[in-house]
Amino acid sequence: MATAHKFRVLEFYSGIGGMHYAFDKSGHQGEILKAFDINTTANEVYAHNHGKKQLAQRNIEAVPMEFYDKQQADVWLMSPPCQPYTRTGNQEGSKDNRAKSFLYLMDILLKMTNPPNYILLENVKGFEESDSRDLLVEALTGAGYEYQELLITPLQIGIPNSRMRYYCLARKTSVVGSFVHKPTGTLIGYIPSLDMNSEQESNGDKSNQQKDFVDGRKQGDLSGLSTPAAAKKRRTSLSTSTVTKEDPATEKPDEDTILADPMLALKVETLDKYIEFKDVEDERMKRYMIPDKTLLKYGYYHFVESTGSIFQMMSEKDTAAVFDEAEALKGKPDSATADEDNAKALALLRSLGLRYFTENEVARLMGFPITEGKFSFPATTSLKQRYRVLGNSINVEVVSQLIQYLLTSKSNGQDQEQGQGQGQEQGQGQGQEQGTETDK
Q: What GO MF terms are annotated (predicted)?
């Protein structure tokens, strides 16, 4: 029986190690050769959990192409800075200085002697409409990769976390063969299953492919993004809805529709398994409670919009009703009883037990193995820093399933053996040649 291929992996924009954990959880064997990031806090968390050996605190674009070539990595995992593509940013795309390193990687991809056989890229929803996405596709096509683009939210795999992200999976087919399922040439809203055989696929049977996901694993299809030229042509008319009746070609996966699914509550786990503390009297809760000033400042709907993700420990209470009652109690500034009225309103709002999620709860929701004792923060990392580096990280569970799919070849005999054999032979030779290089 043939031994499993051990993949050689480069982790770009490594942060606190989300891609590392995702690869470990994917079921594939391999090693992280180098993990690149310039954020000191993130690197401290990474080193705390994985050691310093792989870390490279250097600007990616400052490292010569020859170094990456010598690594002869099978796999590139990357999550470039999202600020150039977010709604809250300037959305300057490739013109943003923070996109420079990503553009450098795309440039050398076309010039390398030993480019990776597999690439996984993660970014925010919105990246698919950027010029950086066009450059990504142009580089992949020019370098001989087959690719599939996706929009996936953790809700689809049962995790109560609304966080839709863009992903691109790419394989160098001349070396490792094709994906298990032929890429659609469109943006899809499901992770293709590894269970469906070629006969089912050719007959259009997607029943196995759709069996586990909350939205039926069939949400949306953005044919307008199948080529860079088409993307540029359609960019001004893209719809954020799942269905656009006037032009079905502009459909794409939409998180609001998934959230509106009446069956969602039956398919997504409850928060209980992710919650660290539930007792409002617990002394450890003080640092996470919503400040009184914030509670009094907003009405319910403005509060929900302005304060981010909040956990209500007194779950039996109706949040909106309590806020309405408190709003009616609040005293007017010129009222003689203003202080007394505000005190009553505040007491009412405090009874909800509203707090921020702890950093460990956020990490659990993002798939980091805290309960298994494999992930923790250094004692020197402040609470603010913990929230910040988590906010820049990935969902480990989602990415692990994507890596599992990306690195699995078709199980149709000779093609798979030849593709994996070539990759394995190449990887073994590279490891012997570069045994000391990864220790730098």
A: methyltransferase activity
Question: What distance in Å separates the CA atoms of residue 99 and residue 103, rounded to the nearest whole number?
Answer: 6
How far is residue 63's CA from residue 68's CA, in Å, rounded to a whole number? 8
Residue 7 bridge partners (DSSP): 30
Instruction: Lowest mean pLDDT of 175-179, 186-190, 309-313, 333-337, name the range.
Output: 333-337
Structure tokens at 215: 């939205």
pLDDT single digits (tens) 304-354:
777 778 899 998 999 999 999 999 988 777 778 888 999 999 999 999 999
Closest among 143, 142, 218, 153 to 186, alpha carbons compared: 218
The structural domains of the chain, ordered by start, are 6-260+391-439 (3.40.50.150), 277-357 (no CATH)
pTM of the predicted model, to two decimals? Answer: 0.79
Q: Which of 10, 16, 56, 82 is catalytic?
A: 82
Token pair for 71: 């690594």
CA distance 99 to 89: 13
Q: Does residue 433 carry a pLDDT above 50?
A: no
Q: Is 168 a catalytic residue?
A: no
Cβ partners under 8 Å of residue 290, min gap 6: 307, 310, 354, 355, 356
Burial 283-318 (b: 16+ CB within 10 A, else e): eebeebbbeeeebeeeeeeebeeeeeeebebeeeee
